[in-house]
Automatic annotation (TrEMBL), chain A:
GO molecular function terms noted in the UniProt entry: ATP binding; ATP hydrolysis activity
Chain ranges of the ABC transporter domain: 23-254
Protein name from the UniProt record: ABC transporter ATP-binding protein
SUPFAM superfamilies named among the record's database cross-references: P-loop containing nucleoside triphosphate hydrolases
SMART domains the UniProt entry points to: AAA (SM00382)
InterPro entries named among the record's database cross-references: AAA+_ATPase, ABC_transporter-like_ATP-bd, ABC_transporter-like_CS, ABC_transporter_ATP-bind, P-loop_NTPase
Lineage: Bacteria, Bacillati, Bacillota, Bacilli, Bacillales
PROSITE patterns cross-referenced by the UniProt entry: ABC_TRANSPORTER_1 (PS00211), ABC_TRANSPORTER_2 (PS50893)
Record-linked Gene3D superfamilies: P-loop containing nucleotide triphosphate hydrolases (3.40.50.300)
Pfam families tied to this protein: ABC_tran
Keyword annotations: ATP-binding, Nucleotide-binding, Transport
Automatic annotation (TrEMBL), chain B:
Record-linked PROSITE patterns: ABC_TM1
Name of the featured protein: ABC transporter permease subunit
Subcellular location as annotated: Cell membrane
InterPro entries: MetI-like, MetI-like_sf
Membrane-spanning ranges: 70-92, 104-123, 129-149, 192-214, 226-247
Family in the record: Belongs to the binding-protein-dependent transport system permease family.
Keywords: Cell membrane, Membrane, Transmembrane, Transmembrane helix, Transport
Principal location listed in the UniProt entry: membrane
GO cellular component: plasma membrane
Stretch forming the signal peptide: none
ABC transmembrane type-1 domain location: 63-243
């Protein structure tokens, strides 16, 4: 494992190292298919996610980022190694681990508010309370005016926000996000990045965030992970030296070291 | 919008042309009036049947009888085919259990097993309803199974990650996901039952639209046959419109995901 530059300029160390360990992935490999179709996607991956962390995972297309997320979500089981999530030996889908998909994946027959209520409804929260909490979540992502609309009536960016609201409303301890802003235009993406940052600064739920976008990673992450190779493995796993709670994303971009860090990260992606 | 209204006019035009041709061919004696009655005669028969009924029962009761059989059979098909289809789609075991039966009887001509049904259930309404039920069941079941197969796996996983148990995911995700397919299935099933209606009313019936047409044919009353056929066609169109309206209001997201 190399740390390429990122650790050299390590100064504003985020105080998350001592948080409780929520996810730990130990020497995991994942093989899809059998026989001739067999394909090893991840090999010997070790990683952890601690309380209050915002981990951004970068990596070339097809290197196994989504597969890694699906292991944590409990959608896939590792072929070898261990995935421990919130103390349990076997990862399985559960409401403490929220997932935001690359394509919003909302329930098309439910209004935005009722989509946001879904998790609470499944957990048996009473009608009045779940409505209130869902409305709160929908407002927080700025969709208050659209709460009675069906998903197909929304734009892509609004759908993605609705999907985030649906996950937030269920109050998970860990949120897994798979390139949630990947399909959006630059301006919408920047808006949503800022919104997500604000939400995270307020709640400090642990976030595991997959992205293709180096800037996105530098602006949001407390820690950056680069996956690379085929089968994929961890090439970089280092705190984000740029991470700051006080400065806005615009200010972060203007920082002197921003350009250099960005370049280093792009380099490490190329060689990963 | 413009194109659509144009198409409406085109449809009207083709109906109008057909009616004109019908009227012309009878007015100019191109055809034997015994086989093709004139529109006036058919209208006269219609007015007669409306006023005095046909063979002792008013027209409304003929229509009512047919619709009652259809509705009962349909109700039975919906409450059985949908849950079974959902279960088959969800569990390969259930599917392995049910599929062969359906694959076997589906292609059979309904009249072939109708004789058996009459033998078992008698000549009353029970055998008729059973026949219509079987006609509705297969297309509905197949549509639902296909619907379950088409559900994106991630949608179910999303529900599980939000805390839905397997049972709840079935009820709250799988079932509503299939609603568009259920409506498609209902429309196909409706067509199938309707086409078997006449067959069902062929044996030992004394009422119903299908029976009316068959009975009239014995007496060469082609005007009554025409009335019956036109009525059946009209009712079919109305029923289809009703289902389409239901589908549109109940599953507005269909095709827009
Ligand atoms: N269910 C599956 N069965 C077989 N192969 C799969 C499956 N899912 C993914 N793969 C393969 O595993 C590899 C990694 O896929 P994965 O989706 O994890 O990549 P990714 O890093 O998320 O890519 P992207 O950035 O394009 O989303 C790919 O080669 C893909 O074809
Ligand atoms: Mg992916």
């Amino acid at each position: 494992m190399r740390a390429i530059g990122l650790t050299e300029s390590y100064d504003a160390s985020p105080s998350t190292e001592d948080g409780e360990r929520l996810v730990s992935i130990e020497e995991v490999s994942l093989v899809y298919g059998r026989g001739k179709k067999e394909k090893e996607v991840l090999r010997n991956v070790s990683l952890e996610l601690r309380e209050r962390e915002f981990v951004c995972v970068l990596g070339a297309s097809g290197c196994g980022k989504t597969s890694l997320l699906r292991l944590i979500a409990g959608y896939e089981q590792p072929s070898s190694g261990r995935v421990r999530v919130l103390g349990r030996e076997k990862a399985e889908p559960r409401p403490e681990v929220g997932v935001v998909f690359q394509h919003a994946n909302l329930f098309p027959w439910l209004s935005i508010r009722r989509n946001a209520e879904f998790g609470l409804r499944m957990q048996g929260v009473g009608r009045a309370e779940r409505r209130e909490r869902a409305e709160e979540a929908v407002r927080r992502v700025g969709l208050g005016d659209a709460e009675d609309k069906l998903p197909f009536e929304l734009s892509g960016g609004m759908k993605q926000r609705a999907a985030i609201a649906r996950t937030l409303a269920a109050s998970p301890r860990i949120i897994l996000m798979d390139e949630p802003f990947g399909a959006l235009d630059a301006i919408t993406r920047e808006n949503l990045q800022q919104q997500l940052r604000r939400l995270w600064l307020a709640s400090r739920q642990a976030i595991f965030f997959i992205t293709h976008d180096v800037d996105e990673a530098l602006l949001l992450a407390t820690r950056v992970v680069v996956l690379g190779g085929s089968p994929g493995s961890v090439a970089v796993d280092a705190p984000n030296p740029l991470y700051s709670e006080e400065e806005s994303t615009a200010e972060l971009r203007k920082r002197q070291e921003y350009g250099k860090l960005r370049e280093q990260l792009v380099e490490s992606l190329k060689h990963a | 919008m413009r194109i659509r209204s144009w198409n409406g006019w085109l449809s009207l035009l083709s109906v109008f042309l057909l009616l004109s041709l019908w009227w012309l061919s009878t007015a100019l004696n191109w055809v034997n009036p015994l086989f093709v009655p004139s529109p006036q005669k058919v209208w006269g028969a219609f007015v007669d049947i409306c006023r005095e009924g046909y063979k002792g029962s008013p027209l409304a009761s003929h229509i009512g009888e047919s619709l009652k059989r259809l509705a009962l059979a349909f109700f039975l098909a919906i409450v059985t085919a949908i849950p079974l289809g959902l279960a088959s789609g969800y569990s390969p075991k259930v599917r392995a259990l049910i599929d062969p039966l359906i694959e076997f009887y589906r292609p059979l001509p309904p009249l072939a097993y109708y004789t058996l049904l009459v033998l078992w259930l008698g000549i009353g309404d029970a055998s008729k309803i059973a026949l219509l039920f079987l006609a509705a069941f297969a297309p509905l079941y197949i549509a639902v199974v296909a619907g379950v197969a088409r559900i994106p796996r991630d949608r179910i996983l999303a529900a599980r990650s939000l805390g839905a148990s397997r049972g709840k995911a079935f009820l709250y995700v799988i079932f509503p996901s299939c609603l568009p397919d259920i409506f498609t299935g209902i429309r196909t099933a409706m067509g199938m039952t309707y086409t078997t209606l006449v067959a069902a009313e062929m044996v030992a019936a004394v009422s119903g639209m299908g029976w009316m047409v068959l009975d009239a044919s014995k007496f060469l009353r082609s005007d009554v046959i025409f009335v019956g056929i036109l009525l059946m066609g009209l009712i079919a169109v109305l029923l289809d419109l009703l289902v389409r309206w239901l589908a549109k209001t109940q599953v507005p997201w269909n095709g827009k995901e």
